[in-house]
Amino acid sequence: MRRSSATTKAAILAAARERFAADGYDRATIRAIATDAAIDPSMVMRYFGTKQHLFATAAEFDLHLPDLAAVPRRKLGAFLVAHFLDRWEADDALKVLLRTSLTNAAAAGRMQTIFTHQLAQAVAQRTSDPAEAARRAGLVATQVLGMALCRYLLRLPPVAAMTRDEIVAWLGPTLQRYVVGSG
Fold it and tell me: Does the predicted model carry a pTM greater than 0.85?
């Protein structure tokens, strides 16, 4: 049975997401992705050109950031830490993207785009200056990406052993300062 172009592309993306999540970027192969999608490997290349482009396309992640304007000002930092803990713990593909972004330019670009656009838009709800929102979002990203790297990928013992409440208590004030300033 022949599939439409859109159906084939969707099957490739679904297979790629699963394969990258299961095997990581380096071990996932075009051949394995094609097998999972029940197509010839040449079709993967036809639609996506390179493994890097396929990964970048498959790595469409939504940080699911809620409207920060609805969060009480004094609770923003703790709220964001808890939110990001939820995201990292619920989405292995996000961990794969972080791991891969350390050694792959396409993955790093995808991670930059995700955090730059989505986080800056959320932080912009708390400041009227777009440049200031971008700066603050960048600082928030340093903390949540560093926490995720240490807790979920490197499994740094002191950080990996902390409870959720401990992480929120330690990082919340820092994110609070980054989002709303010291005042």
Answer: no
**How far apart are the C-alpha atoms of 81 and 165, rounded to whole Å?**
10
Please tell me the distance from the alpha carbon of residue 83 to that of residue 76, in angstroms, as a whole number: 10
| Residue 82 C-beta-side C-alpha neighbours within 13 Å | 9
- Are residues 160 and 100 in contact, defined by beta-carbon separation less than 8 angstroms? no
What domains appear along the chain, each with residue ranges and CATH number? Answer: 5-58 (1.10.10.60), 68-180 (1.10.357)
Give 16's contacts (C-beta < 8 A, 6+ positions apart).
28, 33, 54, 55, 57, 58
Specify the residue for token string 């330690």: 170
Query: Residue 72: exposed, middle, or buried by beta-carbon count in 10 A (0-12, 13-18, 19+)?
Result: exposed
Residue type, 82: A
- Angstrom distance (rounded) from CA 73 to CA 82: 15
Say how many residues make up the chain: 183
CA distance 131 to 77: 20
Q: What is the pLDDT of residues 113-154, one digit of tens each?
A: 888 889 999 998 888 888 999 999 999 999 999 999 999 999
Which residue is it, tokens 């999608």?
37
69 DSSP assignment: G
User: What six digits make up the tokens of 180?
Assistant: 């709303």
- Cβ atoms of 100 and 24 closer than 8 Å: yes
